[in-house]
Write a structure and sequence with these properties.
The protein is α+β, with helices and mostly antiparallel strands. The protein has one domain (about 10-95). The chain is about 30% helix and about 25% strand. The chain has a 5-stranded antiparallel beta sheet with strand order 4-3-2-1-5.
Length: about 100
Amino acid sequence: MHEHYPLFSQVALSQDFPEYNLHWGDIATVVEYYQMTEQEDGYSLEGFNIPEITLEVAHSQIISISQWQKEQEIFQKIHKLSPEKLQELDQYINQLIA
C-alpha cells in the first residue's frame, strides 16, 4: 500500500494527457483525495496554467516532485552517454527486468 499525497501538495504527472495538452512532468496541486476500497485511490489536481481545469487522476498517474527530480537527473545523465554506452545500458536494463 502507498501513502497518499496530502491536500495542497504539489505532484508531477507521470503520463501525458493530450486531451488537455498536459505532459509528463507537468506540475499541479492536489485539491482533493478519493480513498477507494475496490480500486486505485484518486486525486483532483489543479494549477496547470489552464484556467478552470480540474484533472481527475489515479494514484499511478502522478509522482512526487522529488521522484520527478530524480528521474530528470537520470535522463540528463543518459543524454550524455555515447552510443556504445547507451547500448550497454539498454542490455543491462533488459537483464534487470527479465
